Amino acid sequence: MDKKACDSLSALEKLNGDVLLRILHYFNDDNIAQLSLTSKHLRTVCLPTLFQKAKVRCQFIAKSDPPPASWPYIRTIEIAGSFSSGIGFDAGHLRQILPHLVALRKVHFRFFTWGVYWYILDFLLAAPNIRALEIEEPSDLERSDLSFPDEVSPATLPFTEFVYTIHAPRPPSWSNFKPPETIARRCYMSPLVLSLHQTLEVLHLPSAMAPLQEMAVVHWPRLRELKLYSENYEGEDPTIFARLFSGMPQLRNLDLHFFHKGPSRQTLIMPSDATFTTSFDHLDSIHIPYPDPNDNIYDCLPPTLRRMQLVDRPRYYRFNTKWMESIEGYTRPLLITATELLCVIKRLGPLAILEHLEFAYQADSQDFMLPTQIAEFFPNLRSLELHRYRSEGETDIHIESAVENIANALSTLRHFRHFRIYLNLFVDDYRPPKIFKQELRTDSISCSDFMTLLRHYAMKIVRNCSSSLQIIDFLTTYVYGEQFWMRHYVGRDDRGKAILELDDPAIIPLSRLFVFLAAFTHDSR
């Protein structure tokens, strides 16, 4: 090792443990393993990070035992696959090892073929400090409900966190109109979830599988994070969410990350005629797809809210055609207008510590007032994402004027760092692919001309916006064949003049990068 490397290593060793651990977050496993071999001190610091996760592959269970040196540091075990013999876990030594894993907090079953039933949970509880259970399975898998022996009270199980993860179902075939895969309508772990209502603190469930009616009649006194995601088929009861959340007084993170396939076109949480008292006093963040402007929840959100996302999910531009409704089965949503959004903001009142905000809306006569109200009511914003859908009869001149107005209004935000925007440009109107994926589109505008156009808008934003702005992202939906964000970094030269740098590799997906570069090279000739 040369003298320069030795000096750098010596300087690294002088840092305290907390600083070193923060640095390790930027290293991959190989880098951490190499660093742990350089000195005893660095090895001591690296071991908790290096061994924090163990993987058990059931097909090779006899070879999956974590080494004894890792036992004090393992915080998560991932169990995946299927057993190659009928004796299951006993083909290895995990039964004997579990009592020694005192740091183990989370067990993650990833496509575990047998399903997680009582005998599996009983086996895992040999580890003394397990608190979190995550299960990752296909979306269309249907199993029989989990049950417990008569002598077992599931309410006494130690789990405070339950996450049930499904991947998005297989999309429909673009060529032969084969329908998409369906999502199972019940989670077989529901008996466990309902039994733990007194102790759960974190709960993630697919909305289509969640036993919402049963959940709404019990109390969740310690639940602080709830995520309902994927397809949502709420029935005729408009008060289901109000009743559900009325039993969650400590809720801090509410993430309704679903998309509608039921009768609703907007998400209504608290109807005007609801008789349930719902407290959101502790809420830090909220995510609502296609919000209903008449929802009474906007009168109940606390002034201490830090993140708010009133979004279009799925993206509203996808409903330009009948594909989303007739083939994929989505309910056509109703997008909130700028006028309605202004009313929502006034009902919210000033949120002085709100740091992150996302709005999707349809431009109308009050479009120019909206950015001004955003800056006035949310003065502490660090990041903002706007999806502005143009109104009927708008032209490119109207869009350019709207961009300038947004930038001018946001110039008062002194802590503003990151701006993401979808402008619904005419040349970038979304069109569904003919065969699975869209090809690169150059019929309406060339790649280089489109990049120049986005740079023009970025410079207009930079010149009018706060000098604290560092990143601008534009959502593009059509020109490059996929939907993705194009990022511009904002810098300043010695004279304070704005400088923009396009971050190609970080934003353009690898699947399109070579096509994009080829097209850009062709356009530049």
UniProtKB/TrEMBL annotation:
Gene3D superfamilies registered for this protein in UniProt: Ribonuclease Inhibitor (3.80.10.10)
Highest taxon of the lineage: Eukaryota
Originating species: Dentipellis fragilis
SUPFAM superfamilies, sorted: RNI-like
InterPro entries found in the cross-reference section: LRR_dom_sf
Protein name: F-box domain-containing protein
